[in-house]
Write a structure and sequence with these properties.
170 residues, 8-stranded antiparallel β-barrel, mainly beta, disordered N terminus, Porin
Length: 170
C-alpha cells in the first residue's frame, strides 16, 4: 500500500480510523448548525523536490488543475476544522478524487497551521491493487481577506512535495 509518508508506512485502517474519529467529533458538534461559509478550492500547483534518486526521464506534473469544495465545521475550542472533497490532475498526470479532514490552530489573525488528513485515488502504489494514498499533510492556511485563502500543504517524503491551492468563500 503506497502512502504519502514513505518513511513510515501507517496502516490504511489506522489512517481511516483517525480521519473518521476527527470527522465524527466535528460532525457531532456540527449536527445542528450545518456547514459554515462554503469555500470553492482551485487546485493548481505543486513543487517536487527531487533528491537525485529518481529514474532518468521521470517527469512530474506540477500543474495540478482541479476543483474542490470545503465545508467549515464548528471547530473544537480554538481549533478550526473542515471537511473537503474534490478532484485534480495529480503528479502522475492521472485524475484523482480526494476527501480530507483538516484541523488548524490560528497562529495570528491571518495564519493558521495544522494537518489535513487526506485520502486520494489515482496513484500508483507498491502493489498496484488499490491506487489509494492516505496520510496527514502539514498545512498552512493564509487568510487573504474575508473571501480568499491560500493553502500550502507539505508531503514530507524522500522527494518532498509542496502543494498549493486557492480558496474562495461564497
Amino acid at each position: 500500500m503506497g502512502t504519502l509518508l514513505r518513511w513510515k508506512k501507517p496502516s490504511l485502517s489506522g489512517l481511516i480510523l483517525s480521519l473518521a474519529f476527527g470527522l465524527g467529533l466535528s460532525l457531532q458538534a456540527q449536527a445542528t448548525e450545518g456547514c459554515g461559509q462554503l469555500e470553492l478550492n482551485v487546485n493548481g500547483l505543486s513543487k517536487h523536490f527531487d533528491d537525485g534518486n529518481s529514474p532518468p526521464g521521470d517527469r512530474r506534473n506540477e500543474i495540478n488543475t482541479g476543483l474542490g469544495l470545503t465545508c467549515p465545521l464548528k471547530g473544537v475550542g480554538n481549533w478550526h476544522d473542515e471537511i473537503e472533497g474534490g478532484f485534480y490532475k495529480n503528479s502522475h498526470f492521472t485524475h484523482s478524487f480526494y476527501a480530507a479532514y483538516g484541523i488548524y490552530y490560528p497562529l495570528n489573525s491571518v495564519l493558521l497551521a495544522g494537518l489535513r488528513n487526506i485520502i486520494a485515488t489515482g496513484y500508483p502504489t507498491d502493489n498496484y491493487r488499490t491506487g489509494l494514498v492516505a496520510g496527514p499533510l502539514p498545512t498552512l492556511k493564509l487568510e487573504l481577506g474575508s473571501a480568499i485563502s491560500l493553502n500550502l500543504s507539505f508531503i514530507p517524503k524522500r522527494n518532498a512535495i509542496v502543494l498549493a491551492n486557492l480558496g474562495y468563500r461564497f
